[in-house]
């Protein structure tokens, strides 16, 4: 497959990718687009040209919207069909897309990206064995770091949907209540242990019905695509609040996502086998057939105010112990319903090796070690003015498919 | 204040109440209504008659909608104004509402009630000291039943918005993974410890901005009104999953609400003082002035398939240790944003006395006691075929304001 557009071979948004997003620009209200190289394809204008007339009635307004929910709800036959048509046009020498007078392609540096979906519910899993072991060793007992349920259950909890923000939007350091070591009373103030969590989230593409469950076999039908997910965490707030009902204010001040949803079908060639789940074996509803992990390289960088950038972690999506299809089957086994636009985040993805730990908590081992930056500074946690950047991509058989990035600057508390 | 309509003095939906809901009926698409006695006022038709012309442009479509979100977003000046106009018309002898040819009033037994709002995020608090003490004594340590953070923090966690359902909709007993006592391996099957939780939720009426917080003083401006809330719980699933990240599948299969939102202003005369918070004193951001609790009687009944009904608990909203304004100030102190339609549930409201415990877990003391029903049966937890009914009302100075009920039947697992 080869496009007439100039797309460098190492570009995340190759002809094999074609992710969906919502963008706007001067004079162009928010609408759905597909990214290709350094351009975005205006799907609304393509529809106006009649390019999707076999799939969508010309009057059916699914693209000129603030979110992709209505488009995604049409089902994969439609969404994959639209993507295939754009893919074909990008390879066809005499395509409409090449006609500059039609303005079907816009340079991406001219557009503003928005949240791609309205998120009904956001669930955060905890599916990396390395991360769970690291956190358990630090906070509880190094000899029994994994809790008894961890190898039986893809542990998860509900997060906050309202504070999910797109890449590029800054956050403020959260304030809150913490209990300093050896103190008698809690204190109030800006978090001193602001952290990121390197995650990947799936975006639900099909409603499931309340009272019914989705099997591991059917789970992929319910997943539209993936995004990078930075689950911001204030470790000191989290530590004081989280027993017994879980994280709340330590997490819900913000989660940042990459704005382009990579469709699941674009990741098919990156599939790899998962962990050997023999000791113990999961219950039957959690078993699955075939390769359901993905070989997606992930990295985290810190950019300081002086402009210097340091990559501080290199991990891979394939390090997840519990796969997405297991997470989804578990989530619905009690009859809980999923809705289009919901996000299921993976949990922090830490590599077995410390160079690939997915949070400052683990990289600095709860603040006991300093992480060197390229400008000579060091970090134990994230400081005001820092920008955290996450990137992710897979590359196999010459087909590179990537997520772009999620980038968030931290501003001081108000 | 006296209406020309025949409303019995002990009716929840008195002229002092006038709650908002979404209803439909044969030939009438979902729309906003106000309940009065055994009737519902059609707000769309009232608008068509020009009754709200000083408040809303005639073409402004806020009532003929599936949820109240757009109406509520207009702000209290508009929502209270609409309510006041209906209140005046219900008292005015020559009101349009009396003209039967206009069909502005419909008997409530002819309508179907829907979820009144689209819930963006649902948060569940844990604010009854009696409930937290009972649960702590049963699950952890009777001598240190309250965890160290409880008297400092209105503990809360995020629940599931997708599975919030209106009164009248049945639920299926959830299936899931549990770890039987003394077992080596978890097992899968229908929950054996299905439970309700007696709660009241507030519905957010105003967006707050990400990165900003709402003070206890301003909190009421952000609350549109209250509903009864049954936070269904599967105790055996919850027990095995909840450490360390909190309840998930043990809760997210369903939460039931009463369909009429009682506006905060209708509850003003029921305000009472809260608990003395001196030992310890809360941090400054959690302090508040004036009466912020409400004297609202709450009760739970079980109706069995033979039609017999037994009231098994009588509690009161005033037993909450942490008030709604404190919950809201805490929720936003880290900059977490609230959106119109969000729900903040109180947590199980247990009275100090065991006749007013707010869950079967507490009433049966973790299954060690049997609760007698009027038909001679007993219950430790909720059985298939049981209908759980919650009711709530306040009555002061001859002004009764109530919630109606939330009623949910439990069907067997599929």
Structure description:
2 copies of one chain form a homodimer. Chain A is an alpha+beta fold and 414 residues long. The first copy, chain A, folds into 2 domains: 95 residues, SH3 type barrels (Roll); 290 residues, Fumarylacetoacetate hydrolase, domain 2 (Alpha-Beta Complex). In chain A, 14% of the residues lie in helices and 28% in strands. Chain A is built from 7 helices and 26 strands. In chain A, the strands form 7 sheets. In chain A, strands 6, 7, 8, 13, 14, 16, 17 and 22 form an 8-stranded mixed β-sheet that branches. Chain A has a 5-stranded antiparallel β-sheet with strand order 4-3-2-1-5. In chain A, strands 9-26-25-20-21 form a 5-stranded mixed β-sheet, with no helix packed on it. In chain A, a hairpin with a 2-residue loop joins strand 2 and strand 3. The mean pLDDT of chain A is 97. Chains A and B meet through strand 7, strand 9, strand 10 and helix 5 of A and strand 7, strand 9, strand 10 and helix 5 of B.
CATH-derived architecture of the largest domain in chain A:
Alpha-Beta Complex
How many separate structural domains of chain A? Answer: 2
Structural class call of chain A reads alpha+beta
Q: β content of chain A, as a range?
A: 25-35%
Q: Mean pLDDT across all residues of chain A, rounded?
A: 97
Helix segment tally of chain A? 7
Largest interface: A-B, 63 and 63 residues
Structural shape of chain A = globular
Give the tally of β-strands of chain A.
Answer: 26
Oligomer: homodimer
The end-to-end distance of chain A, rounded to whole angstroms, is 51 Å
Low-pLDDT stretches of chain A: none
Main sheet characteristics of chain A: 8 strands, mixed
CATH class of the largest domain in chain A: Alpha Beta
**Proportion of residues in helical segments of chain A:** 10-25%
The CATH homologous superfamily of the largest domain in chain A:
Fumarylacetoacetase-like, C-terminal domain
The value of Rg of chain A in angstroms is 21 Å
CATH topology of the largest domain in chain A: Fumarylacetoacetate hydrolase, domain 2
């Amino acid at each position: 497959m080869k496009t007439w557009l100039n797309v460098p071979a190492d570009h995340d948004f190759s002809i094999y990718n074609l992710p969906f997003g919502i963008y706007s620009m001067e004079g162009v209200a928010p609408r759905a687009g597909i990214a290709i190289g350094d351009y975005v394809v205006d799907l609304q204008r393509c529809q106006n040209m009649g390019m999707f007339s076999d799939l969508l009635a010309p009057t059916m307004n699914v693209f000129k919207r603030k979110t992709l929910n209505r488009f995604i709800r049409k089902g994969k036959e439609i969404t994959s069909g639209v993507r295939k048509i754009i893919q074909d046009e990008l390879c066809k020498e005499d395509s409409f897309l090449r006609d500059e007078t039609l303005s079907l392609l816009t340079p991406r540096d001219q557009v503003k990206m928005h949240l791609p979906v309205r998120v009904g519910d956001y669930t955060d899993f905890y599916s990396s064995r390395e991360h769970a072991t690291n956190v358990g060793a630090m906070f509880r007992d190094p000899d029994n770091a994994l809790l008894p349920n961890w190898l039986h259950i893809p542990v998860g909890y509900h997060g906050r949907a309202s504070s999910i923000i797109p890449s590029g939007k800054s956050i403020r350091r959260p304030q809150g209540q913490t209990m300093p070591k050896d103190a008698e009373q809690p204190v109030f103030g800006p978090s001193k242990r602001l952290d990121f969590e390197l995650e990947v989230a799936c975006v639900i593409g099909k409603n499931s019905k309340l009272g019914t469950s989705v099997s591991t076999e059917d789970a992929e039908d319910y997943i539209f695509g993936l995004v990078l997910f930075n689950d911001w965490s204030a470790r000191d707030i989290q530590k004081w609040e989280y027993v017994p009902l879980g994280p709340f204010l330590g997490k819900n001040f913000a989660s940042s996502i990459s704005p382009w949803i990579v469709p699941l079908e674009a990741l098919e060639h990156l599939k790899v086998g998962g962990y050997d789940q023999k000791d113990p074996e999961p219950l039957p509803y959690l078993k699955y057939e075939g390769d359901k992990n993905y070989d997606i390289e992930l990295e985290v960088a810190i950019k300081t105010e002086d402009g210097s950038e340091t990559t501080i972690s290199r991990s891979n999506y394939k390090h997840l112990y519990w796969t997405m299809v297991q997470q989804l089957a578990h989530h619905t086994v009690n009859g809980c319903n999923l809705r289009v636009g919901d996000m299921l985040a993976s949990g922090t993805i830490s590599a077995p090796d410390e160079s690939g730990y997915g949070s400052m908590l683990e990289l600095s081992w709860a603040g006991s070690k300093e992480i060197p930056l390229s400008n000579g500074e060091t970090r134990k946690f994230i400081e005001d003015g820092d920008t955290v950047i996450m990137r992710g991509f897979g590359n196999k058989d010459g087909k590179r498919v990537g997520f772009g990035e999620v980038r968030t600057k931290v501003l001081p508390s108000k």
